[in-house]
Design a protein that fits this description.
Helices cover 66% and strands 0% of the residues. The protein has five helices and no strands. The protein has helices at residues 4-17, 23-27, 33-49, 57-68, 82-104. The chain has one domain. By secondary structure, the chain is an all-alpha fold. The N and C termini lie far apart (41 Å). Helix 1 packs across helix 5, helix 3 runs antiparallel to helix 4 (57-68) and helix 3 (33-49) packs antiparallel against helix 5.
Length: 107
């Protein structure tokens, strides 16, 4: 079984190589977008795994997009698989950690 850390690292690599979300790109997201996006995926997982009401995945995903997704709706690509959504959230958090470390690094 692949560990959570390994899944997140692979997703982060995919984001960089396939989507072009390089460190330079991430540095432009300096208003909390990366952790907000991670939060949207994480909160969707809460709805998926621990539903307070029985809603369809589509309803849950739409609600989360409306309540906190920081980018255009076409960028919101949730999965019906909660583990996949956590992996995406983890990769976004990793990107934000790296971004913060870059700006804290002395020149």
């Amino acid at each position: 079984m692949t560990s959570g850390v390994e899944l997140i690292a692979a997703e982060r690599e995919r984001q960089v190589s396939a989507e072009g979300y390089t460190p330079e790109h991430d540095d432009s997201h300096n208003t909390g977008d990366l952790p907000a996006a991670a939060s949207a995926y994480t909160l969707l997982v809460c709805d998926q795994v621990y539903p307070e009401q029985y809603k369809s995945f589509e309803e849950q995903a739409k609600e989360r997009c409306e309540k906190g997704w920081p980018w255009d709706e076409e960028m919101w690509k949730p999965s019906p698989n909660p583990i996949r959504n956590l992996v995406k959230a983890g990769a976004l958090i990793a990107a934000e950690i790296d971004r913060l470390q870059r700006i804290a690094k002395p020149a």
